[in-house]
Amino acid sequence: MTATAQPTESSARHDVEGMNFYTRKWVRPEDLNANGSLFGGSLLRWIDEEAAIYAIIQLGNHRVVTKLISEIDFQASAREGDLIEMGLLATHFGRTSLTMRARVRNMITRRSILSIDKIVFVGVDEDGTPIPHGYTTITYDRDRMPEPHGKIS
Ligand SMILES: CC(C)(COP(=O)(O)OP(=O)(O)OC[C@H]1O[C@@H](n2cnc3c(N)ncnc32)[C@H](O)[C@@H]1OP(=O)(O)O)[C@@H](O)C(=O)NCCC(=O)NCCS
Question: Which domains occur in the chain, in start order?
Answer without folding.
Answer: 10-123 (3.10.129.10)
